[in-house]
UniProtKB/TrEMBL annotation:
MF annotations from Gene Ontology: DNA binding; unfolded protein binding
Segments for region (Disordered): 78-98
Tagged with keyword DNA-binding: yes
Organism of this sequence: Microbacterium lacticum
Annotated PROSITE patterns: DNAJ_1, DNAJ_2
Annotated InterPro entries: DnaJ_C, DnaJ_domain, DnaJ_domain_CS, HSP40/DnaJ_pept-bd, J_dom_sf
Annotated keywords: DNA-binding
Official protein name in the record: Curved DNA-binding protein
A Pfam family hit: DnaJ
Protein's GO biological process: protein refolding
């Protein structure tokens, strides 16, 4: 079909992802409303964007190939039908020839009406956060734009304790819908490790530098965390690599917050005073400890 999504991009149904991306860029550059003021250019651009959104995702492309233009409704109904098995009684059945949805319950698809038909496609974006930003949460302003010009700003409310991979939905910020119901913008949060903090699910890991005498004798030391300074008890005989667990000091979450793990890192002075050198030499002479044997 000339007016299907493949036709909108001008590619064959066997086109690979590279061809789809290249076709989208060429056509989007030509029909973007900011550069093309001819009648119908904006609608053409929306159709091109919809085609790219669907065909660039292998899962949605497979559903489109199977079910056609209304693949979202048909795929959902087909999945529900497969999971629950045949239903008894009621409902008008809609059947079409060829491949696609067979024996689909029309009332199941549209809830007894026709709401949702022609809904705009969802768009996706990513937002990068530091561990500290994810811990605190708060409002962030993001710009979603086209590589061919123009951008829109959205204010996103980041929940405190946001995790890497968490998705936030902005209703109505996606593709334009045929019935006036626009799609949504799905923002995936990417929490990046920093020099100080590393994120592991809801747990936070950090290094805890301590002096040799603190490692040997034990000590209570102050340590910064995303939530503020805390006191950590270092047990006697703590070597580099030992993990100290601070329960509930990780990412804040409803119910059970994450934990914070402080990894001991023994640090020696770069330079020694005369007195410090004498004491270390005395310790060397009286100690039977062998670091290579661990005794």
């Amino acid at each position: 079909m000339a007016d299907d999504l493949y036709g909108a991009l001008g590619v064959s149904r066997t086109a690979d992802q590279k061809e789809i991306r290249r076709a989208y860029r060429e056509k989007a550059r030509k029909f973007h409303p900011d550069v093309n003021k001819t009648p119908g250019a904006e609608e053409t651009f929306k159709r091109i964007s919809e085609a790219h959104d669907v065909l660039s995702d292998p899962e949605t492309r497979a559903q489109y190939d199977r079910f056609g233009e209304n693949f979202r409704q048909y795929a959902a109904a087909d999945a529900a039908h497969s999971a629950s098995g045949p239903r008894r009684g009621g409902g008008t059945r809609y059947t079409r020839g060829g491949t696609g949805a067979q024996n689909v319950n029309w009332e199941d698809l549209f809830g007894g009406g026709f709401g949702g038909f022609g809904r705009g496609v969802d768009h996706s974006a990513e937002l990068e956060l530091t561990v500290e930003e994810a811990y605190r949460g708060g409002k962030r302003t993001v710009q979603i734009g086209s590589p061919f010009g123009g951008a829109r700003e959205y204010v996103i409310d980041i929940p405190a304790g946001a995790l890497d991979g968490q998705r936030l939905r902005i209703p109505g910020a996606g593709g334009a819908g045929a019935d006036g119901q626009d799609g949504d913008l799905l923002v995936t949060l990417r929490v990046k490790d920093s020099k100080r903090y590393r994120l592991d699910g809801a747990n936070i890991e950090t290094d805890l530098p301590i002096a040799p005498w603190e490692a040997a004798l034990g000590a209570d030391v102050n340590m910064p965390t995303p939530g503020g300074s805390v006191t950590v008890h270092v047990p006697p005989g703590s070597s580099t690599g030992r993990r100290l667990r601070l329960r509930g000091q990780g990412m804040p979450r409803r119910g059970q917050p994450g934990d914070l793990y402080a990894r001991v890192k023994v640090v020696v002075p770069r330079t020694l005073t005369k007195k410090e050198k004498e004491l270390f030499e005395k310790l060397r002479d009286v100690s039977s400890f062998d670091a290579r044997r661990g005794s």
